[in-house]
Design a protein that fits this description.
Mean pLDDT: 74
Low-confidence stretches: 1-18
Number of strands: 0
Shape: flat
Number of helices: 3
Helix content: 25-40%
Distance between the termini: 35 Å
Order of helices and strands: HHH
């Protein structure tokens, strides 16, 4: 794990702003009768997704894993010797990610073989 705040380390996505600025958000909720909703006109350019839920889940899982693993990225100069740690180059994770995506696109059930 990259060192915490105050240890002089830099966050891999750039400097993190420690000061908190108050933010105001407004959320609106509309409660409608089902009969009223049935009478509404759907968006004209809306399309039903042709991607099944398993493929969507797998894509989200890949994105999540890659983003999680990448968040721990450090340059070689930032590494400190630690005999108990094993380091995997980020380009290896990226290559796996791209290969998995390609195979999933070609055959969503490739993992069953």
């Amino acid at each position: 794990m990259i060192g915490g705040a105050g240890e002089g380390s830099q966050h891999p996505f750039g400097a993190m702003n420690i000061t908190r600025t108050p933010t105001v958000a407004q959320i609106g909720i509309s409660v409608e009768l089902l009969d009223n909703l049935a009478q509404l006109t759907p968006v004209g350019n809306a399309a039903v997704s042709s991607v099944d839920s398993f493929t969507q889940f797998t894509q989200k899982m890949l994105d999540n894993f890659y983003n999680f693993a990448s968040s721990f990225a450090v340059s070689q100069s930032q590494m400190t010797p630690s005999p108990s740690e094993v380091f995997i180059p980020a380009n290896v994770v990226l290559k796996w990610y791209e290969n998995f995506q390609r195979r999933l696109t070609q055959n969503p059930l490739f993992w069953k073989t």
